[in-house]
Amino acid sequence: MLSFYLICNLFYFFLLWRMSLTWPKERGEVKHPNQLLPATLVIALRNEARNLPSLILSIKRSLSSLKEVILVDDHSEDGTFLKLEQQFFNSELVKVVASPRIGKKAAINHAISLASGEIVLTSDADCVWEKTWPEVILTSFENPQIQLVTGPILPQNRSGFLTGFQLMEWVSTLLVTNYSFAIGKALTCSAANMAFRKSAFHQVHGFEGNEINPSGDDEFLLKKIKREYGETAVKYLPIKETLIQTVPESSWSALIHQKIRWAGKWKSHSSLLHSLVAAIPALFQVIWLSSLVMLFWGKIEFLGFCSIWIFKILAEIVAFVRILRSLGKPFKLPVLMGTSFIHPFYVILVVLGVIRGKYVWKDRVTKRSD
Description:
Blueprint: H1 2-20, E1 39-45, H2 52-62, E2 68-73, H3 80-87, E3 94-98, H4 104-114, E4 119-124, E5 127-129, H5 133-139, E6 148-150, E7 153-155, H6 161-182, E8 194-197, H7 198-203, H8 217-229, E9 234-236, E10 244-246, H9 252-263, H10 272-290, H11 299-326, H12 333-356, E11 358-361, E12 364-367
Helix pairs in contact: 1-11, 6-11, 6-12, 9-12, 10-12, 11-12
């Protein structure tokens, strides 16, 4: 039994180490486009009044790189739409519109139908970014083969273990995302940090075929563009200049509901690779949890249990420190250790939630369609 866990540990260490090697160790020279392509920033909002001050600041400092900004309200109930109208009443570059239909997908579709930019950038209302984010993202589109670009996302710096836990979880997601792009098998991206040619969006018929899924528009769009234009048409930019920072969830309940929403879309993917990427991490969590029985078997098994978990944490240190440093985020060993122990229990709760298929998001109760 002990040998089984040691083999799993070695595989886990090698897997994380191998993936971390594809993350840029040193930041290269950031290129700026000779001429900016006309770009429209699209953001869908629902009940985001408390996040508007920071969002408005990010928008205003990025306007010089954009042709226009379209803020589309998804039937907010907290005054979001009215506050945006008041803020941008006289703006020629920022349009505030109401979505004619319910749901984020419908809101984004409506905004894209109004967009005049050749490139569409998307982010979320609870996100902030550096002034040069649009410019650096747009650089990639100087290559006419590139149809979609995405970048890293991490939670904003906040105090407390819950924020640190989310930071470590996001880092693991970035690790897998970057590796998948690096080996030419791009798996995932986030609409919170994404840009694509509007012509490509229309060529693949946008979100058509994904209407029944309340989440996953970004990943399904990535998949459709890859199918239409090839793997070299999509690009990941894992550098600090393209980092988007999002507001971390304030409670464990909200975090779990968020992850249930995200994880539920994996069932809609038909590829074996997507299934393996979803199943392998869950399997590892079961293995880590099952090792707890070794605490009650004897001294040798107890020492084996300690060795297994120390080796697990070392593997995560090797992989995560590289990413955190490159993106200017602090590494805190106690947070990583706590996350490493809690994460298996957390993943099991999320899996159970996905099976149940019901979650609350933006004050809407959603039932996943099978």
